[in-house]
Design brief:
Elements lengths: L2 E8 L3 H12 L4 E5 L14 E2 L13 H8 L6 E3 L4 H14 L2 H15 L2 H12 L1 H4 L2 E2 L3 E5 L2 H14 L6 E5 H7 L9 E5 L3 E3 L2 H14 L3 E4 L6 E3 L2 E6 L2 E10 L6 H4 L9 E12 L9 E3 L4 E6 L2 E5 L2 E3 L9 H13 L2 E4 L5 E7 L6 E4 L6 E5 L5 H16 L20
Parallel strand pairs: 1-2, 1-13, 2-10, 4-18, 6-15, 13-22
Antiparallel strand pairs: 3-9, 5-9, 6-8, 7-8, 11-12, 12-13, 14-17, 14-19, 14-20, 15-16, 16-17, 21-22
Length: 419
């Protein structure tokens, strides 16, 4: 039997779920489709920060020292799979170009208003999702830690400039940092305490709470792999497990799997992935971690989570479905034990995910220009968990003819299309 609704949403990560919620609130019927349990891909495995401070997306390194570190496989923050480079090279070259000082300034100016919606929209969904969702959140910020005095002072200077975007911070020297986090062993000059962001002790659980809200509002979930999208009778259809699912409008929110649908429709976008890993640990003795700590000059984060201390790695440039590599996690684990008494591993194997990225570091949000009723929300890179609700809000506004909360033209797909 065919499933018919106003909107079909492909992808039940945080972007797809949030889009469905905001559409349901506007009186649209919504069918959400995913081959896996909602919120159990990229939305599940992140460091759990709602990064209100993240107005500066991760730029491609342009200093020679960092490039040499990555090129010689000495870096913990980033590594690459040599066999993948020929296929990744065109997108990475555009990424490098967009990271030039002048281009990057323009990116930050466009990106800052979007990040500005992050906590506003998460708070909105949490309020509706209920106390179990709000109980997962800490509102005391996180720590960007530095091993060198030079690194700390350089970041402190940058942080002063970010006050123009309404972002608060405090520079914490080592003695005060040790008071805040008594279990840190040492080896740090201090940290930037970003005080505005929120952190979540179980990102997957929060997305599950949002999904429960989607269902309470009347949304329908269909589990199965959608077989592309086809225009039909002024709307869109797909096949899931042999059954037809159709809607007047469609949203592609498939993260790193979006090209499997968009390529067939003629939208060959320069998307690539940055893969990442996480592992949970116990602690030695009675060690505790109160706030997320990111070891900035090495390139990994330690986050207090419901399951233990979650170590998340930096970026791995590889093909999306390539076999996992233990190299980056191993390096990060050794570095982390220099600063904090990590105990035993608690997961049978590392979790691996793929962050969907664009060369200009900005997501694609809005209408597909060559088709009526087709909308896209992909390419959020390191900020998918942060920006999922904001993207859902903006897509729902655009799809129902409302004025969007911010200007979404800078995030349009047109910037990557010719003709």
């Amino acid at each position: 039997m065919a499933q018919v609704s106003d909107v079909i949403v492909l992808g039940a990560g945080i972007v797809g779920i949030a889009t469905g919620i905001y559409l349901l609130r506007r009186g649209r019927s919504v069918t959400l489709i995913d081959k896996n349990e909602p919120g159990h891909e990229t939305s599940f495995g992140n460091a759990g920060i709602i990064q209100r401070e993240g107005v500066r997306p991760h730029a491609f390194p342009r200093d020679l020292h960092m490039l040499m570190q990555v090129g010689l496989h000495l870096s913990t923050a980033a590594r690459y799979e040599p066999l993948a480079l020929p296929r990744l090279a065109p997108a990475l070259l555009r990424y490098w170009w967009a990271s030039s000082p002048e281009s990057y300034r323009k990116v930050v100016q466009s990106y800052a208003p979007l990040i500005g919606r992050s906590i506003i929209t998460h708070a909105d969904l949490m309020a509706d999702a209920g106390p179990e969702a709000e109980a997962l959140v800490s509102k005391s910020g996180w720590l960007l830690a530095f091993r060198s005095e030079k690194g700390l002072r350089h970041e402190a200077e940058k942080a002063l400039g970010d006050q123009a975007f309404g972002i608060s911070h405090k520079v914490v020297e080592w003695p005060e940092l040790k008071q805040m986090e008594p279990s840190l062993i040492g080896g740090l000059a201090g940290a930037i305490h970003w005080t505005d962001p929120w952190t979540v002790r179980d990102p997957g659980a929060l997305v599950s709470q949002y999904f429960a809200l989607f269902q309470r509002l009347g949304g329908t979930f269909v589990e199965g792999a959608a077989n592309g999208l086809t225009e039909a009778n002024g709307g869109w259809t797909t096949l899931v497990n042999g059954a037809t699912v159709s809607g007047k409008q469609a949203v592609v929110a498939l993260g790193p799997w979006a090209p499997e649908v968009l390529d067939r429709l003629g939208y060959r976008l320069p998307l690539f992935v940055k893969r990442g890993y996480h592992m949970h640990y116990g602690t030695e003795g009675n060690a505790t971690l109160n706030k997320l700590v990111l070891d900035a000059e090495v390139g990994y984060a330690l986050a207090p989570m419901a399951r233990g201390i979650r170590l998340t790695t930096g970026a791995e440039f590889a093909m999306r479905d390539a076999a996992p590599s233990p190299i980056q996690l191993g390096k990060a684990e050794r570095a982390a034990k220099e600063l904090f008494p990590l105990g035993e591993r608690r997961d049978p194997q590392p979790w691996k995910g793929a962050r969907p990225c664009t060369p200009d570091m900005m997501p694609i949000i809005g209408k597909a220009p060559r088709h009526e009723g087709l909308y896209v929300g992909v390419g959020h890179a390191h900020h998918g968990f942060t920006l999922g609700p904001a993207t859902g809000e903006l897509l729902a506004q655009a799809m129902t003819g409302e004025a969007t909360a911010i200007d979404i033209k800078p995030f349009g797909m047109e910037r990557f299309l010719r003709g």
